[in-house]
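Record type: monomer structure entry
Structure origin: computed from sequence
Chain ID: A
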Amino acid sequence: MGSFNIVVDSSVDAGDWQPPFAPIHVYAGAVHMLDKKEFTIAELKRALNRGAPLRTSAPSVKDWMNVYESMGKDKPILAITLSKHISASYNSAVAAARIMAKRGYDVRVFDSLSGSAASGLLALRAREMSERGVPIDDALKELEALRARTEIWLVLADPEAAARSGRFPMLAGKIARFLRVKLVFDVENGVFVKKAVFMGDDRAILYLAQVAKGAEQVVVGVAGENPAADRLRATLRVAGIDAPIWQVDPALAVHLGYGVYGVALIR
């Protein structure tokens, strides 16, 4: 079924659908785990509770080669990745595609210039096009147009986690956590951009509800559990927006913090 196959890296969140993926590597102290296989949101919470130092590395070229090989050669393969400005996953996917081309595989790599649910929305649109029989070249053109209309907005529940990963200065993260302010970020051209600061979740939720107005499709994302995500969904529903809640990838949550929440949308 479908005119082309779809694979992703494990940062791509698409609700109930999990396409084949190349895993991000996660290290909790000396323990190595594969994202969405051994490393789950529950494992993230356990690692945080015991104070284990956490770090991640992008899927390797070999990881991508393995997932391409699992798809076979009978159809073109579309690989959708986390933004190349955030991760080396895109570069690994491209390098693997070049190697596999010599073995008869037709692989096209698409940089989502985003991550998590925003990348997932693009993957779902790609699946719809494949199921309709759209040729991969035409699908890529449509995805490029959709990418320009795709946004993700995040509220950091743990600013120190983002600071530890280099998203903004550590001192700023400590101050934000101490003051319990909510930092709202957008991803623009694959780069995190701070958009607003609020005292508490209530105003951040109203801000995101305003951001989502008029969007063609909206989902709420959350890493683990955070009542603010449920309140955001309820606020959107009052505004006439039916948005499902999707889990944020555990490896991304290493950098964004447990409990991070927000909206992904297509305008």
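Annotation 1: The domain at 5-24+59-147 is CATH 3.40.50.10440 (Rossmann fold).
Annotation 2: Residues 170-176 have pLDDT under 50 and may be disordered.
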